[in-house]
Specification:
Distance between the termini: 195 Å
CATH class of one domain: Alpha Beta
Low-confidence stretches: 109-117, 120-133
Protein name: Cell wall integrity and stress response protein 1
Number of strands: 5
Keywords: Membrane, Transmembrane, Transmembrane helix
CATH topology of one domain: Alpha-Beta Plaits
Radius of gyration: 65 Å
Strand content: 5-15%
Structural class: alpha/beta
Number of helices: 4
CATH architecture of one domain: 2-Layer Sandwich
InterPro entries: LytR/CpsA/Psr_C, LytR/CpsA/Psr_CW_biosynth
Shape: rod-shaped
Strand order of the largest sheet: 2-1-5-3-4
Order of helices and strands: HHEHEEHEE
Largest sheet: 5 strands, mixed
Helix content: 40-55%
Pfam families: LytR_C
């Protein structure tokens, strides 16, 4: 027969394992402090807030940049449209002005062709005006009459004319037949002597030039005070 096991728990001597501590032992732990339990939630909350702020900053900056870019594109498009409109207006105005000038030129040409010119030709002018009246005759006979009573004044004026190129100049005092005018005057006999008389008046600084058929020389200068 098999031997009957008669050894029991009380048969062994007690050791350190026979007196376990009170309370949970091993994986069983007691209640942790409140700060320890709350700390993970605080960390998660702070991290979430930081992530939200960072996301908001990035998103708001990008949104602002996108808005600015759209505004710049809109302004550029508006300016381009304005420039195109101005160019079109300028081209239209230029075309209108060109058409107007062409029409005016065409009208003037038509008018010029349809209406004969009324301006006299050079040959007609030459025929109507004597050629002699257009020229200064420095060889014409010129008499300088001294009506001032100042001795030598007629000779002085005659010398001025000679220095101007007149070759046939004489000085004299008035005689009984000479009619003295109220002011200094240059007389000329014929229309052919008008240019010469005017040149004499310019040389002596005389303002009055008159025609007279009663003088004895082609040009007569009467000096008065």
């Amino acid at each position: 027969m098999a031997r009957k096991d008669t050894e029991q728990y009380q048969s062994y001597e007690k050791d350190a394992f026979d007196n376990p501590p009170e309370g949970p032992v091993g994986v069983h732990r007691g209640n942790r402090p409140m700060i320890v339990r709350v700390t993970p939630f605080i960390i998660v909350l702070v991290a979430a807030v930081a992530a939200g702020v960072l996301f908001w900053s990035i998103f708001s900056g990008e949104a602002a940049n996108m808005f600015n870019r759209r505004s710049e594109q809109t302004q550029t498009t508006a300016q381009t449209s304005q420039g195109s409109s101005s160019s079109s207006a300028d081209e239209s105005a230029s075309g209108t002005a060109s058409q107007s000038s062409q029409s005016a030129t065409a009208g003037e040409s038509t008018s010029a062709e349809g209406t004969p010119s009324q301006t006299p030709s050079a040959s007609e002018s030459a025929q109507s005006t004597p050629e002699e009246s257009q020229q200064v005759n420095t060889n014409a006979q010129i008499a300088v009459i001294n009506g001032t009573g100042v001795s030598g004044y007629a000779n002085d004026r005659a010398g001025v004319l000679q220095n101007q190129g007149f070759t046939n100049v004489s000085a004299a005092n008035p005689d009984a037949t000479t009619v003295l005018p109220a002011q200094t005057v240059v007389y000329y006999q014929n229309e052919a002597d008008l240019a010469t008389a005017q040149q004499v008046a310019n040389a002596l600084g005389i303002a009055t030039v008159e025609q007279s058929t009663s003088i004895g020389t082609p040009i007569q200068v009467v000096l008065m005070q």
